[in-house]
């Protein structure tokens, strides 16, 4: 847990989730991912936003940052895996076409830095 609203319910240690990843058409299937977003593939790590729905169930949002090797930006994005020196910024972009916000500031850093950025953030509304 990197950050939680002070009055929020405690997030679970584990949770079951149904996430995008496959597209079925007739008898065929193929891998599927939103451009620039993770497929949440087994064996990879991510920093993701968990939300508790009106039904009381926890789930991860589609937006997440790859986090293999303890580094934001290393790992799986849209079904492509990059690590170490070959890792590139995700395709999550702002209106200018460039990665922005927390993802931009955290790229190449560890979860401790993400936690510091979240703690220092000011709510917009």
Low-confidence segments, given as residue ranges, are: 87-94
End-to-end distance, in Å?
23 Å
Shape verdict: globular
Q: Nearest-angstrom radius of gyration?
A: 16 Å
Question: Residue share in helices?
Answer: 10-25%
Output mean pLDDT: 79
Note the run of SSEs as H and E.
Answer: EEEEEEHH
Ordered list of secondary-structure elements with their pairings:
Layout lengths: L21 E4 L2 E4 L14 E7 L5 E9 L8 E3 L2 E3 L18 H6 L4 H10 L5
Antiparallel strand pairs: 1-2, 3-4, 5-6
Structural features, described:
It is a single chain. The protein has 125 residues and is of the alpha+beta class. Helix content is 13%, strand content 24%. The protein has helices at 101-106, 111-120, and strands at residues 22-25, 28-31, 46-52, 58-66, 75-77, 80-82. The protein has a two-stranded antiparallel ribbon. Strands 3-4 form a two-stranded antiparallel sheet.
Task: Give me some keywords for this one.
125 residues, alpha+beta, 13% helix, globular, two-stranded antiparallel ribbon, 24% strand
Write a concise synopsis of the structure shown.
The chain is α+β, with helices and mostly antiparallel strands and 125 residues long.
